[in-house]
Q: What sequence folds into this?
């Protein structure tokens, strides 16, 4: 297989054991073999014999190169929008209040059920292309706006099809336990039984990579969440949880007991929750877009997470209700300004730690043996990625070794 050389670039490798911040390599080079990185380091150290084997040479013209960005928490596939609800909220009606009145997630469920697979594909593809336009090479997409077998299947199939039709890797997560659908009003436990049936069926159809639930007073209890986790674990599926977003329900401890890949949101995370996550190796997925858009004031406990050594990922949470956002670069900035992450922590949050939040060991850094997913930026230093608002310094994205 022919080898390709990329040279004349600064590399932000994000390698975990790097001594330089960002794993920075000035005057770097990478050798790509097929879809895989074969060699990464300073050009001056590239073995001459390897260089001689490179039949294609790409001059990066001084670009900064980072790993491909990973958006590890999205609800990208949905029908309609919630601009009217946004207006209501600006007049003082709360997010939870709107949900209790039958709006919120339930209104997106209605619009998603009404939409055909073709309509969902068209609207979701626009959002996906926006993410890709900022260097996203892996994106997680949750179901959870269908809440009935046929509609959950439709959304997961749309997500899979988006991945097949675009040069991006899509990971699907089943979020049947997102909200109570109208036909199960007042029957949470009965709906959880239905969630378990849907999960078994959809996992059998190969549509599910991981399982998530919304553990919250306006959604599902820890006991109900645990039933979903048990079923998912029996099917050998990885777990994630929307935990402690609006209150401290102890969801993080539960998720940690089940070895969840990640707990997401976490504004109300307790010390005990953070300790449990650290023991379990769960990633904290922080979602500054939802914090901003819901005008929350309670910050996730970043210092606690740092003290316990819990890895922090950053994601858009792209969804119509709490974070109608398709810019992962904007989230980098907001992670710094709102959550006080350093630009280096933020960049690790959309690369190395985001990969871990999805259980993917083959990406998220520039290192030999990992996937050749990377982005060339018209920048000198990686801090500039988190610094600018509304800029898009992307030059090229390379996905599985090929310029996209
Ligand atoms: O991640 N927290 C639950 N789910 C979504 C919001 C869903 C919605 O409002 O449509 C979230 O914030
Ligand atoms: Fe979410």
A:
């Amino acid at each position: 297989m022919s080898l390709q050389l990329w040279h004349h670039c600064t590399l932000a490798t994000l390698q975990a054991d790097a001594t330089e911040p960002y794993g920075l390599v000035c005057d770097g080079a990478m050798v790509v073999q097929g879809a895989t990185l074969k060699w990464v380091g300073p050009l001056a150290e590239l073995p001459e014999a390897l260089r001689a084997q490179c039949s294609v040479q790409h001059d990066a013209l001084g670009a900064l190169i980072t790993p491909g960005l990973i958006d590890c928490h999205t609800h990208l596939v949905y029908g309609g929008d919630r601009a009217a609800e946004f207006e209501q909220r600006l007049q003082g009606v709360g997010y939870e209040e709107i949900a209790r009145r039958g709006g919120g997630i339930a209104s997106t469920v209605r619009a998603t059920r009404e939409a055909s697979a073709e309509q969902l594909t068209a609207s979701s593809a626009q959002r996906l292309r926006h993410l890709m336009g900022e260097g996203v090479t892996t994106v997680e997409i949750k179901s959870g706006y269908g809440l009935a077998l046929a509609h959950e299947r439709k959304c997961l199939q749309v997500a899979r099809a988006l991945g097949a039709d675009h040069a991006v890797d899509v990971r699907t997560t089943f979020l049947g336990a997102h909200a109570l659908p109208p036909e199960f009003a007042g029957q949470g436990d009965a709906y959880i039984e239905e969630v378990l049936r849907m999960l078994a069926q959809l996992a059998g159809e190969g549509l599910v990579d991981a399982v998530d639930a919304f553990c919250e007073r306006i959604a599902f209890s820890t006991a109900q969440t645990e039933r979903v986790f048990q079923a998912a674990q029996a099917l050998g599926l990885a777990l994630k949880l929307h935990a402690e977003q609006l209150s401290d329900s102890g969801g993080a401890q539960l998720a940690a007991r089940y070895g969840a890949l990640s707990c997401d949101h976490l504004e109300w995370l307790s010390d005990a929750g953070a300790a449990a996550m650290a023991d379990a190796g769960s990633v904290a997925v922080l979602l500054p877009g939802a914090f901003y858009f819901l005008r929350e004031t309670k910050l996730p406990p970043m210092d606690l997470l740092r003290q316990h050594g819990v890895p922090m990922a950053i994601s858009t949470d792209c969804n119509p209700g709490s974070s109608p956002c398709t810019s992962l670069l904007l989230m980098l900035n907001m992670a710094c300004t709102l959550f006080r992450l350093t630009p280096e922590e933020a960049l690790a949050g959309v690369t190395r730690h985001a990969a871990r939040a999805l259980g993917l060991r083959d990406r998220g850094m520039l290192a030999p043996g990992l996937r050749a997913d990377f982005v060339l930026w018209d920048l000198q230093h990686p801090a500039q990625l988190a610094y600018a608002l509304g800029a898009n310094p992307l030059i090229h994205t390379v996905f599985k070794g090929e310029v996209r």
